[in-house]
Amino acid sequence: MQVTETLAEGLKRELKVVIPVKDMAAEMNLKLADAKDKVRINGFRPGKVPMAHLKKVYGRSIMAQLVNDIIQERPTAILSERGEKAATQPQIAMTEDEALADKILAAEADFEFTISYEVIPSFDIMDLSEISVVREVVDVPAEEVDEQVLRVAEGSRTYETKKGKAADGDRVTIDYLGKVDGEAFEGGADQDAELVIGSNRFIPGFEEQLIGLKAGDEKVITVTFPAAYQAAHLAGKEATFDITVKEVAAPGKVEINDELAKSLNLESADKLREVVRSQIESQYGQVTRQKLKRQILDQLDAAHKFDSPSTLVDAEFENIWRQINTELSDSGKTFEDEDTTEEAAREEYRTLAERRVRLGLVLSQIGEKAGIQVSDDELQRSLFEQVRRFPGQEREIYEYFQKTPGAVASLRAPIFEEKTVDHMLGLIKVTDKTVSKEELMADDEAEGSDKAEKPAKKKAAPKKKAAKKDEAEGAAE
């Protein structure tokens, strides 16, 4: 076998592989000899079929299988011998000349094919001990715990039917029908809907107009949907609702005691407070980790500058671009509404894609050197979490991950990434800093994040959502 490099431009490589006809013929003859004692051909005793006849009957099919085996197996071996790792599956090209293909299958011509691919770039990982980050920690005050416990208690509050008019804090049971320009709209009707006045669950201005109504009353109320309402066809529009009040109920007294805790399957009010505190700390902990991770990624990005494989960058950009356009479409907006142009947005998201791919490669090398593995149990738990998000579609989700190439890698990558970050936290310098919840929750875009992830102009939801996505998702494998 002869391997000749015909292209070495940046990260792009192209190899010409030639397997001489004598080698192909020798491989074919070995397989024919192996088949000689196994095949049954009329007119010949087992094991006595002449090789020439075997070649005439089975030669082309055996040669076709040889060709298929070669293009499936040799590229991996060739790249391994060259000490290279392809960024994506190498592209294989063979002759399209039918006459030449027939000669190859007849063992009368050399078998030639080309391998085209991009290599994973070679780079050195920075000294991780040089990374220094600040871990913001919130000391949850007792008052916040009490506020949350009170919300839990209010969620368990009982209501008693009353005959008087509805007041703020009362629960009303209503039938309603919403209309825009006199026409009912989808999702704008319900029966026996329960609504606590003052809960702010409905459109601004809706609940206040229920005050003073009593059971049996009917009323038409008018409201205006918010300009940023999620349903674009309703955003900013005036609507009317035909209301029928079925019941008015007054709230019972809220008491935080052991009886309330036991109704929630907890042994005491103290245990309830303990559970609530743990939940709040967990919520803040997730934000703390994300901000910590962002600092790590920023410093890794600053220390590692190299060209990334365009195939990976193209794929990541397409993922981002598809997400952005879906969000714009769902919100009924355009790039102009976001104070930018499609061309400028493409350039900015392309830079973001390059950053994500580069960080994915860096994290991948750090994790591999640390011997980080993703277990089957971890993959199974991740798959289960995916399935839980789509109740009623469990079978379809399982089949998707079984049949879709790369689907399992999409589960593995974020797990691998998080385990790599955990490994790094044991090597870098971490300084804890106690902050208020307001400081922790403040947008961190102005705290030194990469320019590719900060809007150069005022951009709303689409930009922010894309920037907050895990940067190495799908690229760390």
TrEMBL record:
It catalyses: [protein]-peptidylproline (omega=180) = [protein]-peptidylproline (omega=0). Residues 456-467 have a biased composition (Basic residues). Residues 169-270 form the PPIase FKBP-type domain. Residues 436-477 are annotated as: Disordered. SUPFAM superfamilies: FKBP-like, Triger factor/SurA peptide-binding domain-like, Trigger factor ribosome-binding domain. GO terms for cellular component: cytoplasm. GO terms for biological process: 'de novo' cotranslational protein folding; cell division; protein transport; protein unfolding. It comes from the Bacteria. One of its GO terms (molecular function) is peptidyl-prolyl cis-trans isomerase activity. Keywords: Cell cycle, Cell division, Chaperone, Cytoplasm, Isomerase, Rotamase. Belongs to the FKBP-type PPIase family. Tig subfamily. NCBIfam families: tig (TIGR00115). This is Trigger factor. The gene is tig.
